[in-house]
Amino acid sequence: xxxxxxxxxxxxxxxxxxxxxxxxxxxxxxxxxxxxxxxxxxxxxxxxxxxxxxxxxxxxxxxxxxxxxxxxxxxxxxxxxxxxxxxxxxxxxxxxxxxxxxxxxxxxxxxxxxxxxxxxxxxxxxxxxxxxxxxxxxxxxxxxxxxxxxxxxxxxxxxxxxxxxxxxxxxxxxxxxxxxxxxxxxxxxxxxxxxxxxxxxxxxxxxxxxxxxxxxxxxxxxxxxxxxxxxxxxxxxxxxxxxxxxxxxxxxxxxxxxxxxxxxxxxxxxxxxxxxxxxxxxxxxxxxxxxxxxxxxxxxxxxxxxxxxxxxxxxxxxxxxxxxxxxxxxxxxxxxxxxxxxxxxxxxxxxxxxxxxxxxxxxxxxxxxxxxxxxxxxxxxxxxxxxxxxxxxxxxxxxxxxxxxxxxxxxxxxxxxxxxxxxxxxxxx
Length: 429
Known about the structure:
single chain, alpha+beta, five-stranded mixed beta sheet
């Protein structure tokens, strides 16, 4: 949990509330991505207006939203077109206590409907039991009992009370220990649906990622209630010519599928469906990805690598100029950043030893981040000004692991000084 805040229940401030909240979420997305972020909103009817305000911010609608019984089944949310679309984009799920199927529940619910004109959600019916237990406890303690006495009286009555919400058992924290919950979502066609008994909504596709000259990742947003996804990938938007193995291909319950061995320069199309025990959703919208031609700028920089940091127009217009540029001003040209696996547009992304520490017998341990597809070599010299450095035995070339790497070198006790250097090269494809 990286942020928690109350909001003022003043509609004239909701726009400012969401603007500030957007800044917070956008900053977090920049650090961790959007896939593992979620928003829990604890609100009542004003939650509709908050969702409506959130709909104006792509960062807020790119993450999952969850609600509680205060918004579950809210009819005003269905009537508000902007808020309903924001709920759909954020795969909004609300939890609420499930209705208990006994005569008392029906009696209380029917009485409330007679007063209000509509069947109540479950929260008011459960509140009926809450009020009764509190009233019985206060009656028994005369309204002057201690907190401990009232608590015990509530427990005593709960043990024999048959209410609208079923048997009541408390845990050691005085919370209800048992009971059933249900989860609701808004269907694509509008209306609240139970998550466990309805077909998932059609997935929302996301832009492809990690494009090179022969691969990309097809991506989509997770669907509430989905237990599996099916993927189509084709070279035409009508999906008449699907890739082998990718016509209605089951791809598990993740939201990304790496597609390998593709034809350089070819455009591909993909769509996805979600399913569970109740059935399979309609297809998502169609997304497309054009893998880059197998072409290179000066110093062997792949065009697809440049396209990760610059616009397609810039890459196609002047790839060599980009490869020789130092956009972030860190003293390294883009082609050097490509070799190192660092970003040419972020001055904080640099190739460096992250840490050193003394080792046994006067040795030295060094640590660095090793990018996949790179080879690292540790060399040594007794003189910083030496023209040649001797590669260390066991110091490489070491394949990058996509994680932290390290090397420990022994030092000659008789040596006046000793220095290590770390070199990075691209691994042969």
